Amino acid sequence: MPVVLENLGKRFGDGAPVLDDVNATIGAGEFVALLGASGCGKSTLLNIMAGLEVPTSGALEVPSDGAAFMFQDAALFPWLTARENIELALKLRGVGKAERRIKADELLDLVHLGEAGDKRPHELSGGMRQRVALARALSQDRQLLLMDEPFAALDAITRDLLHDELERIWKETGRTIVFVTHNVREAVRLGQRVLLLSSRPGRVVQEWAVSEEHRTDAGLAGQLTGVITARLREEIRRHAK
Amino acid sequence: MPNNTTPLAESDPVVETEPETRKIHAALTRTSTGNEDLRELEAGLDSLQSDAARKHRIDWSRLLLPVAALVVLILVWQFYVSLGLKRRDQVPGPLDVLGQIGVLWGDGKLQEAVWTSLERGIVGFLISVAIATPVGLLLAQVAPLRRAFGPLISGLQVLPSVAWVPAAIIWFGLTDATVYFVVFMGAIPSIINGLISGVDQIPPQYRRVGTVLGANRFQMALQIVLPAALPGYLGGLKQGWAFSWRSLMAAEIIAVGGTIGFGLGSMLNQGRDLSDMTIVMSAILLILAVGILIELLVFAPIEKRLLRSRGLLAGSTR
After folding, report:
1. Any CB–CB contact under 8 A between A117 and chain B?
2. ipTM for the predicted complex
3. What is the reported pTM?
4. What is the distance in angstroms between the Cα of B304 and the nearest Cα belonging to chain A?
């Protein structure tokens, strides 16, 4: 199992715990959607898996080479072109100069941006930037890819396309993906499993499996979306008092 | 697997019993039919969402407006002089000063003064950059160092570098070393401060990306922090150059003689000694002109390129 979380807890300073007793296992090559309302510690959990933050209790097991990470904003470096952004990631990984160029072009082609390699981030649309960011994350060549609401800021048309795109790339590259979102439909669209995280403190309260039929049958997907939404609302209502 | 796992929704008995969960919501499904279809859709969307490249035209107002402003100022000056409120040797007119500049050019003194000052200014500035850049980067990246020396560096920036002239004359005598020392004390703190404030303004996300991409401390400083801080650093360089040039003039006015050559500051001082206002005005105008030319020919193009490549130029009034 590439990722095992055991009784994981996190609190900042003396405040209330953000995460409490989180348990989950994620298998190699699995696509897991981590779903929760705002303030449930989804991003904190992802940061812990990425090694950007340290848990205050519990244990976790992640691949020893770390994880690739994709943020909500593309966070491309504005002084570099799309290709150079990817090449920098390869350089920091220790890839040689000649190979960098070839690899970067391959990755740009993988996200269907073969023509846009010489453009600067500000010349790209939001969706194109996110695809460059995806290529950069893939260039790290790590088995585990963590995604923190990467499509949340995009328009609906672009987002629908990027769902297809991400699914295709996941199948082509065989990565293990943990995808954080607050959008139930997105979670059902992408995840093989949907984990629902409760809020304050964050804890995995329920999980659902999503089958291949859900990808094409809107009725089936809609039903599951309904079930998960109801459970999520129940979780949110708990905080009304 | 934890025991709270629920099987697939279609076979879930809970769905049948709880009325609310039986509602079917709008859902997302696969929308494209394959890789080729996806590639085509994305290409279409990309071209819709990208701006067509705009052509750069020469904007004549950029050239004509400053020239017009200069002409207006000279006319106002001439008008004031022609009112005859002050003695002509105290307030010379534009033509008198132009004549004096012609004379100084003929003597070769003008060329000598401009060249001497410019050479010192540029050499002093470049050495300052070479010293201030690593120091500034080190201070910006290492918190204890910054806390220790930050206030001192900010303080040095406030201290007029002319204050170092007496000390420099005592230490180095009337040599070029005195002039350079004063230039360093003016330029180095302001370049360091510019670099530090540039680093402070880097979006925190860039550092996180650097960490995630596996940059070590050294790579983080050179590959991410320095380029990200470049706009602020350039601001610091501009200010550093201004401080070099000002300090240099101050040093040249005060420290005259010895092996210190004849610069623009020396020319200014000579004008005062001779009570020749046309020489004083010529020197002031030359000092100003050099400052403007360096800004226009060196810093403005670099800054423009830097901002344009990062998409920061749109909507500015420059």
Report:
1. no
2. 0.81
3. 0.77
4. 13
